[in-house]
Specification:
With 59 residues, the chain is mostly helical. It is built from one helix and no strands. The longest helix is centred in the middle third of the chain and has 57 residues. It is rod-shaped.
């Protein structure tokens, strides 16, 4: 009975470790997505300002 309890205990510890690794990966991916969003928004904002400048110059 003691061996079974130890087995279950270490199995749960292993699962917790795996869950922690997955959470770290998810957080890293989430940070990368946020950085890409900022890059995309920054690029589209600069393109919009260039279009506004050329539009006002043309008129």
């Amino acid at each position: 009975m003691v061996f079974f309890q130890l087995f279950v205990f270490f199995a749960l510890l292993g699962l917790l470790k795996l869950m922690g690794e997955h959470l770290r990966r998810l957080r890293k991916l989430q940070q990368e997505i946020e950085e890409l969003k900022h890059l995309i928004v920054g690029d589209s904002a600069s393109e919009a300002s260039v279009k506004n400048e050329t539009g006002t110059d043309g008129e």
